[in-house]
Amino acid sequence: MTARKDIEAITQRIRERSRASRDIYLSRIGEASGRAANRAVLSCGNLAHGFAVCSPSEKVALGADRVPNLGIITSYNDMLSAHQPFETFPQLIKQAAAEAGGIAQVAGGVPAMCDGVTQGQPGMELSLFSRDVIAMAAAIGLSHNMFDAAVYLGVCDKIVPGLVIAALTFGHLPAVFIPAGPMTSGIPNDEKARVRQLYAEGKCGRAELLEAESKSYHGPGTCTFYGTANSNQMLMEIMGLHTPGASFVNPGTPLRDALTREAAKRALSLTAMGNAYTPVGRMIDERSFVNGVVGLHATGGSTNHTIHLIAMAAAAGIKLTWQDISDLSEAVPLLARVYPNGLSDVNHFHAAGGLGFMIRELLDAGLLHEDVQTVWGEGLRPYAVEAKLGADGQVVREAAPATSGDAKVLAPVKQAFQPTGGLKVLSGNLGHAIIKTSAVKPERRVIEAPAKVFHSQQGLSDAFKAGELTGDFIAVIRFQGPKANGMPELHKLTTVLGILQDRGQRVALVTDGRMSGASGKVPAAIHVTPEALEDGPIARVHDGDIVRLDADAGTLEVLVEAGEFAVRPAASADLSEHEFGLGRELFAGFRQMATRADHGASAFG
Fold this sequence. Notes:
Layout: H1 5-34, H2 44-50, H3 56-63, E1 69-74, H4 89-99, E2 103-109, H5 115-118, H6 127-142, E3 149-153, H7 159-169, E4 175-178, H8 189-200, H9 206-216, H10 228-238, H11 254-269, H12 280-283, H13 286-299, H14 305-314, H15 322-331, H16 346-351, H17 354-364, E5 373-374, E6 377-378, E7 385-389, E8 395-399, E9 423-428, E10 431-436, E11 446-454, H18 457-465, E12 473-477, H19 482-485, H20 492-502, E13 507-511, E14 524-529, E15 546-550, E16 555-558, H21 562-567, H22 588-593
Parallel strand pairs: 1-2, 1-3, 3-4, 11-12, 12-13, 13-14
Antiparallel strand pairs: 5-6, 7-8, 9-10, 10-14, 11-15, 15-16
Helix pairs in contact: 1-15, 4-11, 6-7, 7-14, 8-9, 8-20, 10-13
């Protein structure tokens, strides 16, 4: 089935806009393929170093270039719940490779930081740029030119986008992404949010808060809310970089291990040494990225991907824009209600039919490109399935259920929760911004109120504790962009503004920073660009100026006479405290080189 005309029209304009850069990219990976992605180009000394620790039989096979060698890029560490399961994956992959007649080696590790640990802390200012560091670290691992294909072990916020950038940079190699899965469900997300608000109001202590948080984040796997980490897993599946049904199977289960072994064997089957050579740079094209954006809207996914998807696409010579993302939002209905867009978690979503159900619904409605190439072969239809464990311990797949297992969590297209995806571009005399409306009630999507201006989230928190945040207002938090301080998430504001909104005040946020992938019920115009440090209009807003945020009309305006606003001097801020400490001094070059948020906030230009 072909995609609907409006979906195809957006895809075609991306294709036309990207033609020159995409042609250059494809030419480069074609040249890389032609130079041979194998050991034949290495000298004997090079090769001896590359297989020094291999067994004698593996050395013979690699030396004669008779078998495919699979490179493993891993984000394993044992501090972070989402990445701890990867400890055992390399051995599983090596065993599976041997069974398939190949060899696997760990090519390198990449850093994996957790925004949940660094929220509100100085380390958060490294978070966005860690994506580019991850891409570079993976490139170093693959630069040895020992590999015929690669598998990428990653889950969370910046890790998967960084790995995708690396995979597409090495686009002549086949690539399969292998997830670890979500942790089992803990206390309900709304209960966790309730305790957070009580703590912020001084109505419970730290012991009670820590107990609630620990019951929510309690074991191996991703956090179970639908933030950036789980949005990543959805993207990898709907873009065809996972094997079908792999995303949301819990770690430490026989099915998870079977999926990991299967993915390794699949990657080996795609090398140039076989008959199904599938270089990832050709496999992933404009249609793949449109499918990813459609999935983001249908699930009410993370706002962070309005930055990451642009950077990922650029790595493949594809020029994706905020306007493309916004226009697709108008065409794609919301089919999932997973916290913060609902009360359920990603395990409930998976149990209700999950991605297999959703992909089938979107395909049948013409909202996805079915005629794409994936790591599984031709077409996206094979992803409309549910993966299960067969009697022989292998993965078997059944058609996704015909009906949702829980209509409050997962809906068919004809009974969608809302007709649009809920990510929208705002434009006006304050620049451009992104807003996520899927968790915001319709009556709160338009607000006109005086500005309260701060240069840090701590400033707003201090004002809250001092009882100064009275009446209706729009909080303007500036000097939070990529060049200012690395564009940290400002997730700590969610609780404070949520309390005020629950008290009956009409409040909103406008910032050149980011919010969490779990952006919630308070209207927030985020990623404002140009940022304040680049003399963006947000730097000219004064306390008391009337600001109008209209998520329905897609506008963001300060209601000041145009002539007066144009000649106002831009505010300045002392950002010296953001230049040092917890490694921030090492990222000065990244801050200087960073592109705008709507260009991917990338140090690669």
